[in-house]
Design brief:
The protein has 29 helices and 29 strands. With 917 residues, the chain is of the alpha/beta class.
């Protein structure tokens, strides 16, 4: 309900006041009336109460005439005012309204309607005057503000006509503001420039979004850059009615940016020229230097006097030092010139790093230091990356640690920071030493070129100061970070990280046949605590039962206690160099004890001296290993010491006993599926052949080009380059190089014409998946032996069990009866299946038919080892849907495939857990 209009009546005549009150009650409007008989009383009421309109008699006891109006406005300037007068005069009415009243009403003409209209008119007119005044003030303030801005501001309507421009615009363009209003850009600028302005305006008006750019203006033959912000103008109903542009001159800034860019390009060109010069000079210096070193080595092998030999050794050592410097400069200049790229290949991380550590271990042992190497169990077995550049970083950091450490140890540690969603491992490498440490102010600068912590003229250690700079650049190429933590006088720890794609599904590097050493009691004797911890962790992961001793005396005590308790140690792993009683003395003491003299012993040594091995042989030591020891060589040494047989040597090749024996072949296998790789390699190596793996056609061609092989077994479906294209390229190269290597196709395709496609591409043979042992063997024998006359090469097809049961006899036959191999393949199947299903989810959601087909084809390869199952038929339909463009069927097929695979994975998991078929 609307609020009543509050009226203050200032009238000294009571009769007139009552008459006004009466007329107000007769109107349909709601009013409240307050009455004052004098001006003073009325002014007091205005101060103490809210009033919407005043009805004012001009003749009051304490005021008369226009002064009464002035008094009211002095108190309330914006209050609506209606004058009541006894005189009906036009002149008086005009004077009253000119003085500020909204209306003048003669008392003789008052009735309810006229009084109501007059009150309403006064209120509305006052409101309109307020709005107009506010708008005028707002416009004045806006114009005053905009005119004072140091940037140009202009407004246009939707037809592109100027409706406003500020003073800065007039000064910048030279156009008088009054002369441009109503005109367009086409009246002021060249057509091409005006059209661009018009297009920008229309873009802003249509999108309703702010537009910002830096543009060139060449009006009047002068080139200027301006930065422009254009935005829409909206009315009270949020409708776009025009555009506004704000722009300012950025010519100086733009010219400075262009000058800076030119200077930067010039500096980069100079840097590249310098780096290329260094690279060229390094090569030029290395050529004669290699001859100097080579000739010095040849001369050292001839008969020389002692003086001549000393001189030549000095030449050789100086040449090697100079070559090391040149190599650093060459690598650094390659990096600076942007010509150093990482070559990514798969490699076994533990084996590769273990091989790196061997010569470093010898250097450490020569300095009477202990070098340890530890891998966290979560570190992947096989990764992809540049092993050569990783070696360069590791050798540099560990070599520095050895150089700057006089007493103590150097520990090398590898762990996993994280595994990304792309199945990449962020590996964390640490090199900790107990050396001289690095001052705080040098910890950042040492990674810069030609910087060294020991850089004075009296420095004790040599070097170019490029090693750590090169490491920093290489780590950056590996998408990693390098840093150092150090305490002066106590040692340093260098850290670096790198991103390495994981190439195998199994993360643990667990050797096959560990069940043969499980439960074996082993005593580890080493004075270095880090070594003890590492060896303890390794042998425990193989199921052995280790106990640790810090010196020879403690080791002897534990050996005797274990024998007395009836639970003797089977094997001793002992360090050779120990304070007090060394490893040799410990072994001698054991051999002198009747109860322990037959103890199996493996020695670990930090130094390689001819007498050390002969002394160990004399004491009937089972194995001798150089520190830091690799897990694989430690396992092999333990197996040899225990005299146990691994599963590979226990199997009997009964399935091929009717076949002739082929000579050992060097075979290149091109296969991308992990399970197929494992199966094919196991079978071929079991038959006495050596196998080199390429995971796609492109790598197969490169591997064949760089090596010599007797045979290529080529999968047809592979990523990056398929087997048919790889075969064509090999045949083309053979036309140039000569020769002809047999190439056997290995494919899951069994359609008419597939064999012909393989032969047309240049292949010599054809074998189908799943691999049938006799068929594969006979195909190979067709090239390297007489045609075998054996049992049928084809087995009768298996019947698909509708309940998802796995045909274990078929699966075992596919592995040539090797149960261990089949268990390994089942574990690969369990590891890969969830990843492949997740990838199918993504490719089907993206409606990517090619990617869906490739993933489904990979699942087909994983299923082959299990024989015919309902899942095979479902995944075949999924492949067909992906290739025929019927992707709408893919979600339903994927759901059915999940159900089928769930049954198979449960049965496979039970079998792997029980290790029984």
């Amino acid at each position: 309900m609307p609020q009543p209009i509050r009226i203050l009546l200032i009238e000294d005549t009571l009769e007139d006041a009552n008459l006004v009150r009466h007329y107000l009650t007769e109107t349909e409007e709601a009013f409240t009336l307050d009455h004052a008989e004098t001006l003073a009383t009325g002014l007091e009421k205005l101060r103490t109460s809210s009033v919407d309109v005043v009805l004012l008699d001009l003749d009051l006891p304490d005021s008369e005439g226009l002064g009464t109006i002035m008094a009211i406005h002095a108190e309330s300037p914006q209050l609506p005012l209606v004058v009541l007068t006894s005189i009906a005069s036009r002149d008086l009415a005009a004077s009253v309204i000119q003085e500020g009243a909204q209306d003048c009403l003669p008392k003789t003409n008052i009735d309810s309607d006229s009084l109501n209209r007059s009150v309403r008119y006064a209120i509305e007119r006052t409101h309109r005057q307020r709005v107009e005044s506010t708008l005028e003030n707002s416009e004045a303030r806006y114009r005053g503000l905009v005119d004072s801005l140091p940037v140009c501001v202009l407004q246009k309507d939707l037809d592109g006509r100027f409706i406003f421009a500020n003073q800065a615009y007039s000064e910048f363009t030279g156009h008088d503001v009054n002369n441009i209003l109503g005109k367009t850009d086409f009246d002021l600028s060249p057509n091409d420039v005006a059209q661009k302005f018009r297009d920008d305006d229309q873009k802003v008006a249509k999108s309703g979004k702010l537009f910002r750019t830096v543009e060139v203006n060449t009006t009047d033959g002068k080139t200027a850059w301006v930065e422009v912000i254009k935005s829409p103008i909206r009315d009270a109903h949020d409708e776009i009615v025009g555009t506004q542009a704000i722009f300012w001159d950025v010519t100086e800034r733009q010219m400075a940016v262009e000058a800076l860019t030119r200077a930067k390009e010039a500096a980069e060109d100079a840097s590249r020229a310098k780096s290329e010069f260094l690279a060229n000079m390094s090569h030029e210096i290395r050529t004669p230097l290699n001859a100097v070193i080579g000739m010095a080595e040849l001369l050292l092998d001839t008969k020389l006097t002692s003086t001549q030999r000393d001189y030549l050794k000095m030449i050789l050592e100086s040449g090697e030092s100079l070559l090391s410097v040149i190599n650093d400069i060459l690598d650094f200049s390659k990096i600076e010139a942007g010509k150093l790229d990482l070559i990514s290949k798969s490699f076994d991380l533990r084996e590769t790093v273990g091989d790196m550590m061997k010569p470093l271990g010898v250097r450490a042992g020569t300095n009477h230091l202990e070098l340890t190497c530890h891998f966290d169990s979560a570190v992947p077995a096989v990764v992809e990356g540049d092993a050569h550049r990783l070696r360069q970083i590791v050798v540099n950091l560990v070599g520095n640690a050895i150089k700057f450490t006089e007493v103590g140890e150097i520990d090398f540690d590898v762990s996993v920071d994280s595994i990304t969603t792309e199945n990449e491992a962020i590996l964390h490498f640490k090199v900790r030493d107990t050396g001289i440490g690095i001052p705080a102010d040098k910890r950042q600068t040492i990674f810069e070129a030609f910087e060294q912590a020991d850089s004075g003229s009296t420095r004790q250690y040599g070097g170019t100061g490029l090693g750590l700079a090169i490491c920093a650049r290489l780590v950056d190429l590996m998408d990693g970070h390098i840093w150092v933590e150090s305490t002066l006088g106590q040692g340093s720890t260098f850290h670096f990280t790198g991103r390495f794609p994981i190439k195998e599904s199994n993360l643990a590097a667990r050797p096959e046949g560990t069940n043969r050493v499980q439960g074996t009691r082993v005593l580890i004797v080493d004075d270095n605590a880090t070594n003890r911890i590492i060896l303890d962790e390794i042998v425990r992961s193989w199921g052995m039962r280790p106990l640790l001793a810090a010196d020879a005396d403690e080791g002897l005590m534990l050996l005797q206690e274990a024998h007395s308790a009836g639970d003797p140690f089977t094997l001793l792993l002992t360090d050779f160099e120990m304070p007090g009683k060394n490893g040799l003395e410990l072994i001698q003491a054991i051999r002198d004890m009747p109860d322990l003299k037959n103890m199996l012993i493996t020695v670990l040594s930090s130094s390689e001296r001819p007498t050390t091995r002969s002394q160990c042989d004399a004491l009937d030591v089972s194995g001798f290993l150089m520190k830091p020891v690799k897990q694989s060589e430690l396992f092999d040494a333990i197996v040899v010491a225990l005299g146990v047989e691994l599963p590979e040597s226990e199997t009997h090749d009964s399935h091929l006993k009717d076949h002739e024996k082929l000579r050992p072949l060097k075979i290149l296998l091109a296969e991308d599926n992990l399970a197929n790789q494992r199966l094919a390699i196991a079978l071929l190596e079991k038959w006495g052949h050596s196998v080199t793996l390429a995971v796609n056609g492109k790598l197969a061609v490169e591997t064949w080009r760089n090596d010599t092989f007797d045979l290529v077994i080529m999968d047809i479906q592979m990523p990056e380059m398929d087997g048919l294209e790889a075969t064509r390229r090999i045949r083309n190269l053979e036309r140039i190089r000569g020769g002809h290597i047999p190439i056997v196709a290995m494919t899951a395709h069994a359609l008419a014409g597939d064999r012909e496609k393989c032969l047309e591409a240049g292949m010599d043979g054809y074998t189908s998946k799943p691999l049938r042992i006799h068929e594969l063997y006979d195909t190979i024998a067709g090239f390297f032996g007489d045609q075998p006359t054996s049992v049928s090469t084809e087995s009768s097809p298996s019947i698909i069990a509708t309940d998802g049961t796995i045909d274990w006899s078929h699966a075992l036959h596919s592995c040539d009866g090797d149960r261990t191999l089949l268990l390994d393949l089942l574990q690969i199947f369990l590891d890969e299946t969830p990843l492949l299903l997740k990838r199918l989810d993504e490719t089907i959601a993206a409606n990517d038919g090619d990617a869906t087909y490739r993933t489904a084809h990979t699942i087909t390869g994983s299923l082959r080892i299990l024989g015919p199952t309902p899942a095979n038929e479902v995944v075949r339909k999924l492949e067909q849907a992906a290739t025929s463009g019927s992707m709408q069927e893919a979600p339903a097929l994927l759901a059915e495939l999940r159900q089928r695979l769930d049954i198979l994975t449960k049965k496979a998991a039970e079998t792997v857990a029980k290790k029984h078929f």
